[in-house]
Amino acid sequence: MKLLPPIFSLIIILCLTSNCVNSSSQKSPVVIGNDSVGTMTRNGAAVKLMTGVDQVSEYINYLKGKKVGIVVNQTSIIGNTPIVDSLVALGVNIVTIFGPEHGFRGTASNGDKVNDSIDPKTGIPAISLYGKLKRPTKEQMAQLDLILFDIQDVGARFYTYINTLGHVMESCAESAKEMLILDRPNPNGFLVDGPILEDHLHSGIGMYKIPISHGMTVAEFAQMINGEGWLPNKMQCKLKIIKVANYNHDMPYDLPVMPSPNLNTQQSVILYPHICMFEGTILSQGRGTYMPFTVLGAPKLKGLYDFTFTPKSIKGMSETPLHMDTECYGLDLRKYDMKHIRKSGKLNLGWLMELYKAYPEKDRFFDMSQSKQMGNFDKLVGTENLKKQIIAGASEEEIRKSWEPGLGDYKAMRKKYLLYP
Questions:
Q1: Which ranges carry the Peptidoglycan beta-N-acetylmuramidase NamZ N-terminal domain (predicted)?
Q2: pLDDT band, very low/low/confident/very high, at 12 (cuts 50, 70, 90)
């Protein structure tokens, strides 16, 4: 089917989202969202949810006449059109594009530093926040009236987009500039589980005292950063939020655009909080294949598992994957029924416990020297206890008990910042 030109698509979107909200009298943070959008029925079926960005009429006039910085990546689309192209076509003055890990167009491999550039389509400077800079400078902020943030997150502590959110909030707070968040669903919003990050394990893959799966949207998380005083000197970032219409945390949500090169299927997105901890082990998670974060394996498991895969160098995904060009044996989770995860509402520890028991060289299972691609297991999971418990043969019940009272306290704290049921 032939797509409409971007400007005609935008006109249609504007017509569909014409229910404006007058929010001038609301207290900070300003939260806008017509909860009736998407709730009416047509032929007995409910209209689908609408992301913040798709409710163009709720924010377009607010942006007009302002100098806007925009924190986006390839997931930032209005309909089928990149938000930058769409807003420029609508007359918004975008001064600077800021890109997170994987870059503005989402093509850089995990962990790769991303260089500054000029967006060839619009001629707007594109500044990397995953290179020499982690947040906009005071000089860059001085050129702006506000920052717009629209990036699809997947709800895991070690997924770095919430770190980018916090860094940009810090720049906004320092410069007394507002952040407009166009909220998006969390595909793992139903899952709140894992150990709370221990202070001494603070790192680039763990900045906040939250569990592995935090169960919040980006806008909810931004409210938590403010509310818990997590910015330096307990600074506050002024927020304006466009809510997702007709959304709740238990709602399944298939991402229209994959959030990063190695989360390239809906299955990988849902498995990610469970599988990423294996990056601190000798096992491959499928990097170097076209099925990352849906398989687990290693060469030493030959004879114990029938399923095999062989990691290769894939440009833009994994150039030097663990066990490159070597056949790995292990688990194929591509058809794993996600209903099991939704029903349990828990991280799957069974795969970690099973594969550690099966691995013949247990002293090498958590060995960080095997590959530069491997992360530090303790930093990934946020605690030193889990590795010790796995090695000692602790039961899942014992492991989960050790996450309390921290996990329960977090769940209670989380409720204060929720925008959705």
A1: 68-266
A2: very low
- Peptide bond between residue 211 and the one before it cis (omega within 30 degrees of 0): no
Residue type, 71: V
Residue 26: its pLDDT value, please? Answer: 39
Q: With 50 as the cut, is the pLDDT of residue 189 above it?
A: yes
Count other Cβ atoms within 10 Å, centred on residue 181. 28
Whether residue 240 is found in the same domain as residue 355: no
Are both 368 and 236 inside the same structural domain? no
**Which residues, 6+ apart, have CB-to-CB distance to 276 below 8 Å?**
156, 158, 159, 285, 293, 380
Q: Provide the 3-class DSSP secondary structure of residue 227.
A: helix
Query: Which residues have C-beta within 8 Å of that of residue 11, sequence separation ≥ 6?
Result: none
DSSP, collapsed to helix, strand or coil, labels residue 27 as coil
**Is residue 44 over pLDDT 70?**
no
Long-range contacts of 206-209 (CB under 8 A, 24+ apart): 206/157, 206/158, 206/379, 206/380, 206/382, 207/162, 207/163, 207/166, 208/157, 208/162, 208/166, 209/410
Q: Which of 417, 354, 373, 411 is nearest to 194 (CA)?
A: 411
CA 227 to chain centre: 20
In contact, 381 and 195? CB cutoff 8 Å: yes
Whether residues 206 and 280 share a domain: the answer is: no
Structural domain tally of the chain?
2
In angstroms, the CA 126 to CA 353 distance is 44
Residue ending a domain, choose from 253, 275, 296: 253
Residue 34 has pLDDT above 50, yes or no: yes
Domain assignment present for residue 399? The answer is no
**Alpha carbons 342 and 192: distance in angstroms, whole number:** 11
Whether the pTM exceeds 0.85: the reply is yes
The pLDDT tens digits of the residues spanning 278-333 come to 999 999 999 999 999 999 999 999 999 999 999 999 998 999 999 999 999 999 99
Closest Cα partner for 114 from 74, 173, 172, 170?
74
Strands 81-82 and 77-78: antiparallel
What is the CB neighbour count within 10 angstroms for residue 45?
7
At residue 130 the predicted structure's pLDDT band, cuts being 50, 70 and 90, is confident
Beta-sheet strands, E only, within 120-271 = 125-128, 146-150, 178-182, 239-242
More confident call, 99 vs 98? 98
